[in-house]
Amino acid sequence: PVAFSLETRYRPILESLVPPDPMSQFHLRRGSPEEEFPDLCRNSTWMGRILTPAMYRRQFDRCTHSGVIFDDVIRLGLEEPGEPGDWSGPVSVGCVAGDAQSYILFCDFFDRVIEAHHEHKITSQTPESDFNYDNLKGGDDLDRSYAVRCEVSVVRGVEDFCFPTHCSRGERRQLLTLARRALQRLDEEELPGRLLLLEELNQEEQRELNLNPPSSSQLRTGVARDWPDARAVWVSKDGSLVVWVNMEDHLRLVSARDDANIAEAFKCICINLQKLEEFYRELRHPFIWKQQLGWVSSSPADVGTGLRIRVHLKLRHLPKHKRLQDVLKRLRICMDRTG
Question: The pTM is what?
Answer without folding.
Answer: 0.85
